[in-house]
Amino acid sequence: MSLKLIRQAATSNRLLPKMWHAHALRDSYDIVIVGGGAHGLACAYYLATKHQINNVAILEQNYIGSGGSGRNTAIIRSNYLTPEGVSFYNQSVKLYEQMSDELDFNVMFSQRGHLTLAHTDGAVRTMRRRAEVNQIQGVDSQLIWPDKISRLCPSLDVSQTPRYPILAALYHPPGGIIRHDAVVWGFAHHADLHGIHIHQQTKVTAINTHNGRVTGVQTNKGDVKTGIVLNATAGWASTVAAMVGIKLPLVTIPLQACVTEPLKPFLDVVVVSGSLHVYISQSNRGELVMGASVDPFPSYSMAGSLSSLESIAGHVLELFPSLNKVRILRQWAGICEMPPDYSPIMGTTPVDGFLLDVGWGTYGFKASPIAGKMLAESIATGKVPELILPFRLSRFAENQLVGEKGAASVGH
What CATH number should be reported for the domain whose range is 111-175+251-338? Predict the structure, then answer.
């Protein structure tokens, strides 16, 4: 990778090739993917590279990565609560570890470790349970105490002074942060190289069906015939599903985050507090990236709010009192669709040819590669892979929920 960067620098006066290209919209495709974020792009990439299926269109109503993929805080981890969730996200972390080499593009994955703080006896018991579930699934997680927490994060206040003292933490060394734009660009570039058509500013307005089967889509740029449609949207999943008469058990809620002015590097781990509903990490540029839980009301708004900013800042200062003079640079929001059991919805639906990769709530970006790979396999083989079978849509009617609220209640 370093030699490649040196060569690029030496030829920087030359016009570099485009990462992906614009194409005219064909009148038919084998597969149409609705949503040009990391999930949709990953699925297209794996369809082309693993299954040699490249007559595929990605339809994005804005620009690629403009939705949840560009509005998240780019935390990667697999320390979930249920065996199904841990196994699934562990496979995603493994794909992220190989991604820079596989895509020949530096996605800046920094596995700096992930700390989930426990402030109460009940939270300590939950962290112990999560550690044991993680270890049984082969994931590196352990319960640690204030002395080790202080060594990992010296700036964290582990005294008994705070309103909610830190009693313990779930330490997850493989966790870390990544450059979300780089992931989107890398998948888009290689999907394009393999013949996938990426259509930006192309909004799906309707999905055609006949006798319970998908036959095509209608867009603001024309109609397209297809037998398979993958709904890989975030925030608009319910709207797209309603086009084929499916009502999804999702609530659309804003999630807000912010960054500070750049500081000298001091925070080597990702720090999360479920009790305080806040999380913080430091980017490669020195900015502190901070966020909280979702807003307390359903909305499609992507505007920041003062109340959310005050909540984030107040709770961060409870953990890091020394940051009281640091200035906030910018604030933003994304929209999430939260299922009742806090787990995603993936796989087939009662409408033949209509598949789902939705309901990711606040934790979708970390699942991008494995979700794309599994949905590509499902499309290519006609079978739902075992890894994602627990997340099927029918689980709600079957009362087989995958309860992840204990590991996903904070928006990170």
Answer: 3.30.9.10
Whole-structure pTM over 0.90, yes or no?
Answer: yes
pLDDT (tens digit per residue) in 162-181: 999 999 999 999 999 999 99
271 token code pair: 């720090």
Token code pair at residue 212: 């319970």
- The answer to whether the CB of 290 falls within 8 A of the CB of 318 is no
Single-letter residue type at 212 = G
Please give the structure tokens belonging to residue 9.
């620098």
Structure tokens given for 68: 């949840």
Return the domain boundaries, the chain: 27-72+181-250+341-408, 111-175+251-338
| Burial category of 1 from C-beta neighbours within 10 Å (exposed 0-12, middle 13-18, buried 19 and up) | exposed
DSSP H or E stretch at residue 283: none
Residue of 73, 175, 75 whose CA lies nearest to 134: 175
Cα distance between residue 182 and residue 3, in whole Å: 19
Structural contact between residues 322 and 329, judged by C-beta atoms closer than 8 angstroms = no
Contact present, 267 and 288 (Cβ < 8 Å): yes
* Model pLDDT for residues 83-106, shown as the tens digit of each residue: 999 999 999 999 999 999 999 999
Question: How far apart (Å, rounded) are the C-alpha atoms in residues 346 and 158?
Answer: 40
Contacts of 217 (CB under 8 A, 6+ apart): 32, 34, 59, 204, 206, 207, 208, 223, 224, 226, 229
- The yes/no answer on whether domain 27-72+181-250+341-408 falls in CATH 3.50.50.60 is yes
Which residues in 135-146 are b (16+ Cβ under 10 Å) and which e?
A: eebebbbbbbeb
- Characterize 240-252 residue by residue with b for buried, 16 or more Cβ atoms within 10 angstroms of its Cβ, and e for exposed: bbebbebebebbb
Alpha-carbon torsion angle 295, 299, 301, 307, nearest 10: -30
The burial class, CB within 10 Å (0-12 / 13-18 / 19+), for 330 is exposed
Q: What pLDDT digit, counting tens, does each position of 37-55 carry?
A: 999 999 999 999 999 999 9
Residue in 197, 223, 193, 240 with CA at minimum distance from that of residue 59 = 197
